[in-house]
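To the team - zinc ion complex, inputs and output below.
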Amino acid sequence: MNQSVNYVEKCREYLQMLCDTIPGRCVGSEGNRMATAYFSETLKSLGWEPKASSFDAMDWTSKGARLIAEGQEFGLQSSPYSMGCDAESILISAASMQELELLNMEGCIVLLHGELAAEQLMPKNFVFYNPEHHRKIIACLEAGKPAALVCATGFNPELAGGVYPFPLIEDGDFDIPSAFTTEEIGSQLLQYTGRKIRLISDAVRIPGKGYNITALKGDHEGKKIVVSAHIDAKKGTPGAIDNATGVIVLLLLAEMLRDYQGKTAMELAAFNGEDYYSVPGQMLYIAENQGSFNQVMLNINIDGAGYQEGGSAYSLFDLPENMERQAHSVFGSTHGFWEGPQWPQGDHSIFVQFGCPAIAITSEWFLQNMYTQRITHTPADHPRIVNPEQLPVIARAVTDMIKKC
Ligand SMILES: [Zn+2]
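Output:
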């Protein structure tokens, strides 16, 4: 390892590029393509041979949404990736699945509120986690053919991050136009049910491309360790903790391990789509590696690391006994590391599903405040909340772990 490199300074530079110079990293956008190109170029400059795999991904913009009811105007937000609309129709409402099933909603504008709008609905084509009651709501809406939807929502950090109100629907494969608003405005809108209202959502879908970037070193024929981080960010956030810091750890590893020649191959993988409705980069990686997951000896996934408060957390998933001992000896003895509980919302779950052992690294604070934090997916996820000193510590620990495998 080159001791003369000032890794903390590098972290600041990378952070500025990924969160500030590049204008947003949401999948399908120009910023997202700038980020993957930057990641790839940096790997090249460090002596790696990165590979880019492309997929189709839609970007989306909206100038906002509004609802007009009897001369009263309400400001709403277009649901991300939703179709735009200018619809004038009767407002009807449903607060539960039973109510929704009884509605004759064809051509109407449907207000979804209450328990029906308590949880962000998983996108139609999201295969990893898609509960029955979500699929039932979506199927019922599609069969009912309403003109548009208005969703009144609260706070759902588990599925929607720290935003309030949260978009009930965030799905580019769902074609009924929709907008969302707060529970307060939702209850005001209830007085207009049965009456004609107008909903305007100034949203446009824009076709585009996205890329996964991977790079391999060491013996290509044998087992491999995949160190991954998602490079995309949610729309409307600089995505510093989620997940520029993970990408930065990959770049630090690329430098610390530039001369790596171990028997176990090592792959650095910037996945593109963890925070996008159809997780296209992850789906592509699975398709490309179908049948070879048994070569993955270990996945180390970094997501949400480097928060200014507290240390880092490592969580273990199905490690063989030997490796588990190594993991405890490496991470357990690294200052600022703490063993955390398992958490499923990250790219390590792909590897776990395919039977590979995995280690997920995140910030201790985020694991402890997962259900109350209001940072992820919001403008508050800004470089100023990152502790850049923490990232080389993580990269060094990961390097030690790789060398022990
Ligand atoms: Zn993330």
